[in-house]
Amino acid sequence: MIKQAGMLVAVAVLAGCASSPKPYWHKPNATSDDAYTELSACRFQIGLSKIDKDNEELMVAHCMRGKGYRLLANDS
Prior knowledge:
By secondary structure, the chain is mostly helical. It has a domain at 21-73. It has 3 helices and 2 strands; from the N terminus they run H-E-H-H-E. The chain has a two-stranded antiparallel ribbon with strand order 1-2. It is globular, with a radius of gyration of 18 Å. The two termini are 35 Å apart.
């Protein structure tokens, strides 16, 4: 029983190390709060447009890029 618990902990730790970093929206001279506000605005606008779920994230990405943001990998 103890060996199984130890194995589960080891697997969980390794899985955490292997997971990819979460991407974030970046724009020079913009704060993370600015990015959050702009992302929320894009999502709201796309939601009002009644875009189908399959294309929502693509349209949000286009909206953010149009505002000068780029999606980057989080290195931390």
